[in-house]
Design brief:
The chain is α/β, with parallel strands linked by helices. Helix content is 45%, strand content 14%. The protein is built from 36 helices and 25 strands. The strands form six sheets. It has a seven-stranded parallel sheet with strand order 13-14-12-17-18-11-19, with helices on both faces. It has a six-stranded mixed sheet with strand order 1-4-5-6-7-8, sandwiched between helices. A six-stranded parallel sheet has the order 20-25-24-21-23-22, with helices on both faces. Strand 7 and strand 8 form a beta hairpin. Helix 8 crosses helix 9, helix 25 packs across helix 28 and helix 30 packs antiparallel against helix 31. About 6% of the residues have low confidence. Subunit R is required for both nuclease and ATPase activities, but not for modification.
């Protein structure tokens, strides 16, 4: 991949698409008006072939309906076309006898992919408000549905983000193209991200799976993976028909498309549903576990839409069932927004309403909370068991957040009532948190787990942001017996007046403690928002404590606007709480304000409301002063893991001591088959930060920066000049400093709220100024995209604040020199603990080294890369344990070290070893009497003497090298073998010296 430039990546994409059966036509050869983007002759040809019984006049009318869109804005036109593309149009006409005829037409045959014509076209000129030439367009039956935009990976000033930026400009310059666009691909030759044309960059994502069971992590393979994973004809048509939709947010149209985990998870759920539904199956359709914040509600809506369209299900009824009203409202709102997928949605307002809805024979979507399956009181007393409401088999119950209430199988329990009411229904479960093993066996209730998308993968993919954990324990003044019982306490209703829960609530709400916590929260929030704009949630033990916290914060100078979010009971609640009582409409207004990043409402104080089923992506900090456990805890902290603009992480600040419960919840995640910690310990990050500061100070000469602060201006200038000069002495020194300094800045960013870091932030500010000077000299500034304004640097802000960055970066998992794999490093890696991190570290080290070595020894590089992928594949499929995987990875690293050693022993230069291996492999045909090294020297010398700029693109230059090498090999290789060996030598030369003189 290192040889790719913009055009080679583009051409590689064309070749891959041709392998998938696409037809390649150059953009200048297409039959079309440059102002129009639809190939109307192609679409007409498809309609004529697909619907031979429809007369030409009616086909012309259909062609006009598909291509002539009426919306005033491109977003509305795109929405209109998408509905026509996926739902088809109806055409009517009169036959020769005057009889009325009608037909429903689609512009694509979704059932039979080979009945459609797929064209990939490069450099397509389009004349709009400005004239533009697209890199690649894919037409299906003449409709321009997919746009590719490429950028050169070797131009340091551009990246995949620039490709996305160009797509945004295309929307303004050639808007007619986006009337029909379904998917956009932005690529810089290495990274390749897919998204909707109207989406901001943070919503573009890699496609990391070819068939759903695999996950491709290698960034070098992203372009190939998206093409082979999403663009096989059947897969692409399925995605276009079912996995894209538009939401109407009060006139603002938002277009969304599924990510790879949603696509494959839903497809598996469809297959499982069709094979396990009653009466042929046992009605247990399975469980989909997608971690909190990764788009579970969208997945449920898409699955509902697909199942409703399956003809074999004969217009099924889908019951969306949740265990609490707050989840019900949130999910219901999401389904209403996705009405293009799911159709009309009905909401059961009461038990009687639910019974009426389920007693009808028509299909549809019904929302309900599980408690509406209660037993009712009658004139003769309470029902002994739930009545049968429907005996239909085409009835599917889709349970959201399947936890305790789903397992009430005792007499009169909700789960039993559902099954009595709907005896032939089938059940599928969705969850973002693993089910407590003590509650029930999930597979016994819903069937096997169909698909898992865990915390680790979601963070890697950018579907969620990582959550960091910061302990700020403010002790509770409670009696010793309550301290002992603390580990056993369960979350209770706040009306509990006795026992440990009430004691903890009182202790947490003690006036002096609340004031202490309030002061620390405000100080912390101001520090965090000075460098990272966003909002916060405070979680308290009770409504009483929420009001106390609000009052304590309100007294503090500089406190931003806040709101207490809680239920209210005017008949029981004290009048002092009245300002916090809200109607349903007022609560919705507050919710909208908190979700709006520009609104001055910055902090909400909650007990349990908004801790599930509520998304406010701009919220980045949660202050916890309430005991929470298990899935309640995991759901709560997930409120701050949503992706938002340039938000790099969420932060949980703990004032009451939930670290043990976090650890326990983590065990449930990993024990249930998922990977990844929900949070990271702050102490570990602080220790790493201070260690990294020592490393960077050593790189700049081991000077005590505290002494530099006392220099006068002239001394400071001279000192800085000397240091910068030493850091620029060679590329290795420069890159190492920039790499180590970046790691330091990222660590101090994450730990800036910890007092242990405040003492060294002045020193770090000086180091950052040195970094800027080095970068300015090494990489002179030029016109480039404005950087993130929300995250600011120490050198431009108060040194008491700092940027917050992704935790994964603290391990510095890119461009680590292979030389660190020495004996001491191997000893560390072999120690038990943090195996996943060590394996990832080794993978990155080896992979980066392979990128360099691949050019210098193609065959060996491919061999080692295959070994690396094989080991990691086995490890991720659990067929290889972590210790064995580390051993195999170290073996690969040692093989590289042996190559370096062998190079010296043979008296070769680094770039001669590959040619030595090549000739040694063919030693049986060599007639050379002396050592092979002599021939290697002469062959490499003959190649290098004839190199010139862009020689691989010039046939005369390549011919000169072939001739020079041929002279060296003539007489030493049989004539019959000469061309074969010559070809291998030239292939190695192209790989090794293709960028001459850049890598010369």
């Amino acid at each position: 991949m290192s040889l790719f430039n913009e055009h080679t990546a583009q051409n590689a994409a064309i070749d891959w698409l041709k392998d998938l059966g696409y037809v390649h036509i150059n953009g200048t050869s297409l039959e079309r008006d440059p102002k129009k983007v639809v190939l109307e002759s192609e679409l007409k040809k498809f309609l004529t072939h697909q619907y031979p019984e429809v007369p030409e006049t009616a086909l012309n009318e259909a062609l006009a309906q598909f291509t002539q869109l009426t919306g005033m804005e491109v977003h509305y036109r795109n929405w209109e076309f998408h509905k026509k593309m996926t739902q088809g149009i109806s055409i009517s006409w009169k036959d020769a006898q005057g009889n009325e005829k009608a037909k429903h037409l689609y512009p694509i045959d979704y059932k039979n992919p080979e009945n459609n014509r797929f064209i990939v076209s490069d450099e397509v000129p389009i004349l709009g408000k400005n004239s533009r030439r697209t890199d690649l367009l894919i037409f299906i039956n003449g409709l321009p549905l997919i746009l590719f935009e490429f950028k050169n990976p070797f131009d340091a000033k551009v990246s995949v983000e620039n490709a996305h930026n160009q797509i945004e400009n295309y929307v303004l310059d050639i808007p007619q193209l986006f009337d029909y666009n379904a998917i956009c691909i932005a690529s810089d030759g290495m990274r390749a991200l897919h998204g909707m044309y109207s989406s901001s960059f943070e919503w573009y994502a890699p496609w990391k799976s070819l068939e759903g069971d695999d996950t491709q992590q290698d960034e070098d393979l992203q372009l190939e993976t998206v093409l082979h994973g999403l663009f096989p004809k059947e897969t692409l048509l399925n995605y276009l028909q079912h996995f894209i939709f538009h939401e109407d947010h009060n006139g603002k149209i938002i277009k969304k498309g599924a990510k790879y985990h949603q696509y494959w998870g839903i497809n598996k759920a469809v297959a499982s549903s069709l094979s396990n539904m009653k009466p042929e199956g046992d009605g247990r359709l399975g469980v989909i576990w997608h971690t909190q914040g990764s788009g579970k509600s969208i997945s449920m809506a898409i699955l509902t839409g697909i199942l409703r369209q399956r003809p074999e299900l004969k217009n099924p009824t889908i019951v969306i069932q949740v265990d609490r009203s707050d989840l019900d409202e949130q999910l219901y709102d999401n389904f209403i927004l996705a009405k293009d997928l799911v159709g009309n949605v009905q909401h059961a307002e009461s038990t009687d309403d639910l019974r009426d809805l389920l007693s009808t024979d028509g299909g549809g979507v019904i929302f309900t909370t599980i408690e509406k399956f209660r037993l009712k009181g009658t004139d003769k007393g309470k029902e002994l068991q739930h009545p049968i409401l429907s005996e239909r088999y085409n009835l599917i119950v889709m349970a959201d957040e399947a936890h305790r209430t789903q397992y009430g199988f005792e007499s009169g329990g909700f789960a039993q009532n559902i099954r009595r009411a709907l005896p032939n229904a089938s059940f599928i479960g969705f969850t973002g948190t693993p089910v407590d093993s003590k509650d029930a066996d999930t597979e016994l209730v819903f069937g096997k787990t169909i698909h898992t998308y865990d915390i680790l993968q979601a963070v890697k993919d950018g579907a969620t942001v990582p959550i960091h954990y910061e302990p700020k324990m403010v002790p509770l003044n409670i009696k010793a017996e309550f301290t002992r019982e603390l580990e056993e306490v369960e979350e209770r209703d706040e009306d509990t007046t006795v026992g440990v829960w009430a004691a903890i609530e009182d202790a947490a709400g003690a006036e002096d403690r609340v004031e202490t916590v309030a002061k620390d929260i405000l100080k912390h929030f101001k520090t965090r928002t000075a460098t990272l704009e966003g909002k916060a949630m405070i979680v308290c033990m009770s409504r009483r404590n929420c009001v106390k916290m609000y009052n304590a914060l309100s007294k503090l100078e500089g406190c931003p606007e806040m709101a207490v979010i809680m239920t209210s009971n005017p008949g029981k609640d004290p009048k002092e709480w009245n300002p916090h009582m809200r109607t349903k409409n007022a609560m919705e207004a507050i919710k909208s304000r908190f979700r709006n990043p520009e609104d001055p409402l910055k902090i909400v104080i909650v007990r349990d409301m908004w801790l599930t089923g509520f998304d406010a992506p701009c919220a980045h900090t949660m202050y916890v002063d309430k005991i929470m456990k298990g899935h309640n805890l995991m759901q709560a902290i997930a409120r701050v893991n949503r992706v938002f603009e340039n938000k790099p992480n969420g932060l949980v600040v703990d004032f009451i001591g939930i670290s043990g419960y976090l650890a326990e919840a983590t065990k449930k995640y990993t024990g249930s088959g998922g990977k990844g910690k929900p949070t990271i310990d702050m102490d570990e990050a602080v220790e790493l930060c201070l260690e990294q500061l020592s490393i960077v100070k050593e790189l700049i000469g081991g000077v005590e920066l505290s002494e530099v602060m006392d220099f006068d201006n002239i001394q400071k200038m001279k000192w800085a000049g000397t240091i910068v000069n030493s850091l620029l002495k060679d590329d290795t020194t420069t890159e190492n400093f920039l790499k180590q300094e970046r790691k330091l800045s990222e660590l101090v960013a994450m730990t800036s709220s910890d007092e242990r870091i405040w003492e060294v932030q002045e020193e770090i500010g000086i180091i950052q100024k040195l970094r800027e000077q080095v970068r300015k000299i090494k990489y002179p500034p030029g016109p480039q995209r404005a950087k993130n304004e929300r995250i600011k640097d120490l050198i431009s802000k108060s040194l008491a604040s700092q940027a917050i960055v992704d935790l994964a970066a603290m391990y510095d998992l890119d461009k680590i020199d292979i030389s660190i794999i020495d004996d001491s490093f191997q000893a560390i890696v072999k120690d038990k603990g943090n195996e996943n991190i060590k394996i990832e570290l080794l993978r990155r080290i080896i992979n980066d080294e392979l990128k360099v070595r691949m050019q210098k020894n193609i065959k060996k590089g491919k061999k080692l890369k295959n070994e690396l992928e094989k080991v990691l594949g086995k490890y991720h499929k659990n067929s290889l344990d972590s210790i064995a995987a580390i051993k195999h990875l170290l073996d690969i690293a040692n093989e590289m070290k042996e190559d370096d050693k062998r190079t010296k022993e043979l008296g070769l230069t680094e770039d001669e070893l590959a040619f030595y291996d090549l000739l040694s492999a063919n030693s049986n045909i060599l007639n050379e009497a002396g050592p092979i090294q002599d021939l290697v020297h002469s062959v490499v010398d003959s190649v290098k003497k004839n190199l010139q700029l862009d020689w691989t693109k010039k046939e005369n230059a390549k011919a000169a090298i072939r001739l020079a090498v041929k002279k060296e090999l003539r007489g030493k290789v049989p004539f019959s073998e000469l061309d074969k060996l010559l070809k291998e030598v030239i292939e190695q030369a192209e790989g090794q010296y293709g960028e001459w003189p850049l890598s010369g």
